[in-house]
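Re: weekly structure request thread

Next one in the queue (176 aa):
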Amino acid sequence: RASAETADWNMPSTPAADEVKAADVAEAPQESKKSRLTRSYSKSIVMISPGDQLQLLRDLHAAVEAYDAQTLEQLLRKAEKAGLQDDLVDGMGDGEESSDDSDDDGSISLKRARKVFEQLQSADFVLQTLQHIKRLAEGNDPPVIELRRMENLSRQLRTMPGYEQEALGAEQTAQH
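Done, posted below.
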């Protein structure tokens, strides 16, 4: 019994048959390349140790808590380069993820960190959050975290055209 390849080999060469063979040969490398890409995406390779993963998530948590967009961006890039994915890190630490995507041990999901980073790109979010934090920090001896948040939000606001005055006001409030 002859295989399809043997049958093709024994057939006389015609222009139409040659075109079909050329098309098959041209598609073959693309298919194998495509299947290799699919395989490489289906297997997640994490390039940092579990301890470093946990520390990265804790650092992300701290950056989210402080509304530190610059640090958050750097850490999210580091997580991406390391191959971390939400499904690989959900619940790291105590094994369960809380409703706000944050664990008691100070880690946070990548999804939550990305969401906060995206929110920090919105002038409306930054202004509303800044006003809320100003109210919290109005009393004597405000918590250090509130001052740090004001400082980071005002720095983020400075990167947005047209909000220089608001950023300056927030900086002055944070310094007093």
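The two ends are 90 Å apart (CA to CA). The longest helix spans residues 15-42.
Next request, please.
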